[in-house]
Design goal:
Elements lengths: L5 E10 L2 E8 L5 E4 L11 H13 L3 E12 L14 E10 L15 E8 L13 H10 L19
Parallel strand pairs: 1-5
Antiparallel strand pairs: 1-2, 2-3, 2-6, 4-5
C-alpha cells in the first residue's frame, strides 16, 4: 500500500435548505451522489483545486468559506464500502455560488456524471451519498461550527530584529 495521502477539497453549498450534489450513474442505472470537488493536482493550492473542480463538475464559480468538517478515508480502517488502497483526506468547505453563476451539467462531464442536482435536507436520507456523511451534513446545518483555513501567504512575517 502506498503511503501517499490524496487531498480532496469539496464544496458544501447550501441554498434554501437544499444541498448541491453531483449525480453519477453506475451500472444498472444505480444512482449515487458526491459533493462537488476533487483531488489536488501538482502545483495547485487547495482553494485553486476547489475552484477548478466546481467549474469542471457544475459549471459554477464559487466563494469559498470556512472548513465545515473533515473526512478521512483509510483503507486499513474503513467501512467496507470502498475498494481503494489510497488514503484520502476530504476537506469539506462551506461555499456559496457567485452571483450570475448557475449550477448545470458541464459540456464535458466525467463519463459517469449525469447531473448536477439540488437535494433538499428532508430528502437527504433517501439518496446514496459517498462518503455517507449525510448525518454530518444535517448536523452541520443546525450548528454551523467551522474551522478557518490559514494559508501561509496570510501569515505575518517576522521582523529581522528577532
Amino acid at each position: 500500500m502506498s503511503s501517499h495521502i490524496r487531498i480532496r477539497p469539496t464544496a458544501l453549498i447550501i441554498e434554501d435548505n437544499q444541498i448541491l450534489f453531483i449525480e453519477y450513474s453506475e451500472s444498472q442505472n444505480e444512482l449515487h451522489y458526491n459533493l462537488p470537488g476533487g483531488g489536488v493536482e501538482a502545483g495547485e493550492s487547495i482553494t485553486e483545486t476547489l475552484e477548478r473542480e466546481l467549474w469542471e463538475e457544475a459549471n459554477i464559480q464559487i466563494n469559498i468559506g470556512p472548513i465545515a468538517f473533515l473526512y478521512e478515508y483509510n483503507p486499513l480502517n474503513q467501512s467496507g464500502e470502498y475498494e481503494s488502497n489510497t488514503p484520502v483526506l476530504n476537506i469539506i468547505f462551506e461555499c456559496s455560488i457567485k452571483p450570475g453563476s448557475e449550477a448545470k451539467l458541464p459540456d464535458n462531464p466525467d463519463p459517469m456524471q449525469i447531473g448536477v442536482r439540488w437535494i433538499s435536507l428532508e430528502s437527504l436520507e433517501q439518496i446514496i451519498l459517498y462518503p455517507n456523511i449525510k448525518s454530518h451534513i444535517i448536523e452541520y446545518t443546525k450548528n454551523r461550527r467551522t474551522i478557518e483555513l490559514i494559508e501561509d501567504h496570510q501569515l505575518e512575517k517576522y521582523s529581522k530584529n528577532i
